[in-house]
Amino acid sequence: MKALVYHGPGKRVWEEVPRPEIEEPTDAIVRVTAVTICGTDLHILKGDVPEVEPGRILGHEAVGVVEQVGASVTGVKPGDRVLISCITSCGRCEYCRVGSYGQCLGGGGWILGHTTDGVQAEYVRVPFADTSTHLLPNDVTDTAAVALADILPTSYEVGVLNGRIKPADTVVIVGAGPIGLAAIQTAQLYSPSHIVAVDLATSRLDAAKQFGADVTAGTAEEAERVVGELTGGLGAHVAIEAVGVPETFELCTKLVRPGGHVANVGVHGKPATLHLESLWIRNVTITTGLVDTSSTPTLLRMVAAGRIDGERFITHRFALDEMEQAYEVFENAGDTGALKVVLTR
């Protein structure tokens, strides 16, 4: 089969690799029918995630059809169409028992495209298939469902829920890529008074408005001015960091009000300065997190009911064997306007 293989920082190849086989009785082999590329994959290619070893198949967001299951799998069967979660869950350990699947101690957590081969391939082995896949209803398309593998639960759990957005809050979201746009969409479930989107790219600010941002800002200075005007100088109730670079994290700590909340969602590859000398006296709460995907069933019901539109994130579509071209488009989003690229068979 063909797969996108990581060969060290800056090196990736769509190449022939062995087709995966059942290794554990809890495994399933899934034929990938729709897959996407994540900003985290780009971080891996930059060398920001050193745990990913050369030879690893990348990717953790996909939909497919079950081809084969291990002897212990009872929740899915060959022929079932499933969403493959970006987080794998053993379902039995201390963390999984309380829904913190991202911290799984039993061999799960974020493993696909990280510590085990991922989904940017024609076939993938999914460990713990009963607890790491979701059956898809007929009225949810493959391409809409792909958004449920990572970006929607990540932005909702790590940004919106961790940030504790309440009705009438002023929320600022720094970064209007796919995660930031998903945060804009899911923040609206809590009726904030204002949503401010901050990004350097005009195309992404335009997208932010389409997704529901009330106000946009193209620079840090403009963001500070706009948030100050909206809040009488107090600052945002919640600042969501959705980029993963030191400058955007530090901007969030400037934009948040005393008693406010900074919810960091971005994947950071470099240290960011934590200005405790000014933050300690302002009662600012800072949260970080890896998504648990405990919200995926809820979000799936909302997509099925038409309350959330997973398709709207997609700007570019490719055939599965156009993986290299899709990466080029996604890597150059500033020029191509790419938000989410989806590859299908």
Automatic annotation (TrEMBL):
Q: Which residues form the Enoyl reductase (ER) domain?
A: 8-343
Q: Which PROSITE patterns match?
A: ADH_ZINC
Q: Name one GO molecular function term.
A: zinc ion binding
Is Metal-binding found in the keyword set?
Answer: yes
Check the record and name the InterPro entries matching this protein: ADH-like_C, ADH-like_N, ADH_Zn_CS, ER, GroES-like_sf, NAD(P)-bd_dom_sf
Question: A Pfam family matched by this chain, by name?
Answer: ADH_zinc_N
Q: Which UniProt keywords apply?
A: Metal-binding, Oxidoreductase, Zinc
Q: Which cofactor(s) does the record list?
A: Zn(2+)
Question: Which family does the record claim for this protein?
Answer: Belongs to the zinc-containing alcohol dehydrogenase family.
In its UniProt entry, what is this protein called? Alcohol dehydrogenase
Q: Which organism is it from?
A: Lentzea waywayandensis
Q: Lineage, please?
A: Bacteria, Bacillati, Actinomycetota, Actinomycetes, Pseudonocardiales
